[in-house]
Design brief:
Elements lengths: L2 H8 L4 H15 L7 H29 L19 H27 L4 H20 L13 H22 L6 H22 L1 H6 L5 H5 L1 H26 L13 H11 L10 H22 L1
Helix pairs in contact: 2-3, 2-6, 2-7, 2-12, 3-4, 3-5, 4-5, 6-7, 7-10, 7-12, 10-11
């Protein structure tokens, strides 16, 4: 099996978005404590494996359900016959094990397994994250087919990603993690919503009842507008709470989203939204990285 097909199945373009919540949590933590780069690196590796696992499972889940049969663009390996269902299933198992081991190593480096309550709590959270990555499209009760994808994306790419990283790096909690979670979480939901708008016709035919399928394209466009708007307000709130308006320079990349929102609101050919997904992901990544730069290297 050619490695390039597995790289395509991993969908590397989704990784900047996955890393954003880790970078946001780490950036906020640098305001109160010098960062432990070994813990940060393990957070990144674990998140990387979780995202790849999610992408493999998505390819597999939609593939075995036949959801991808009518897709008009070929980014799924099972759909194109480039990776077999059995091989993809094995890839999911291997990635799940690697993710669990990476998470355990992360927890060991933070708590040394001496703080049993915290260690067990994070291990359980890790298992839930692995299960959530798989159950998005796999199985009869796949939550992505029932319209709960947005909620889970917000939880893992927002609240758990940002607050979890912050706590692992500081053993503490801070109010700034709330707007930080809102920024990366809602931006991530924005990417998912655009993805679901793009897939609206195919998902409707395949009984994949995403939020977009449930509320319709017109309301999904309004929903997208408010996701981005609240994300930007949340970013401003971080600057206010930290009393550091240098952080607001991180909003400059958000200017690129003006054209993005305009296209979302006016577009008729939904497939054209595919090229817009990476714009939100990159803006989220760059703006989150700016907070790390300001708190860690400028102030």
């Amino acid at each position: 099996m050619k490695i390039k097909y597995w790289i395509k199945a991993a969908r590397l373009r989704t990784l900047p978005l996955a890393f954003s919540c880790i970078i946001m949590g780490a950036g906020l933590s640098m305001k109160i404590k010098k960062i432990d780069w070994s813990i940060f690196t393990l957070c990144i590796i674990t998140t990387l494996l979780l995202q790849i696992l999610s992408n493999f499972a998505n390819d597999y889940g939609d593939g075995i359900k036949g959801t991808d049969e009518n897709r008009k663009y070929g980014d799924r390996m099972i759909q194109q016959g480039l990776i077999s269902k059995k091989s993809m299933f094995n890839g999911i198992i291997i990635c799940s094990i690697a993710c669990f081991l990476s998470g355990c190593l992360l927890i060991y480096n933070v708590f040394y397994f001496s703080q049993y309550i915290y260690s067990i709590s994070f291990i359980i959270l890790g298992i839930i994250a692995i299960a959530a990555a798989i159950k998005y499209t796999v199985g009869k009760s796949a939550y992505g087919y029932q319209g709960f994808g947005d909620i889970f994306v917000f939880l893992f790419f927002g609240i758990i990603g940002v607050m979890g990283t912050f706590y692992l790096l500081t053993n503490n909690w801070c109010w700034t993690t709330i707007p930080g979670s809102l920024f990366t979480g809602l931006m991530s939901v924005g990417v998912l919503n655009m993805n679901n708008m793009r897939d609206f016709d195919n998902d409707s035919k395949s009984n994949k009842n995403t939020i977009v399928v449930k509320i319709g394209i017109k309301k999904a466009k309004i929903y997208q507008f408010f996701l981005i708007l609240i994300s930007i307000i949340s970013y401003c709130t971080i600057a206010l709470l930290l009393n550091d308006f240098l952080i607001l320079l991180g909003l400059i990349p958000c200017l690129f989203l003006i054209g993005n929102i305009k296209k979302v609101l006016t577009i008729s050919n939904l497939i054209d939204l595919d090229t817009e997904l990476k714009k939100i992901a990159l803006v989220c990544f760059v703006s989150s990285t700016w907070i790390m730069i300001v708190n860690g290297y400028i102030n």
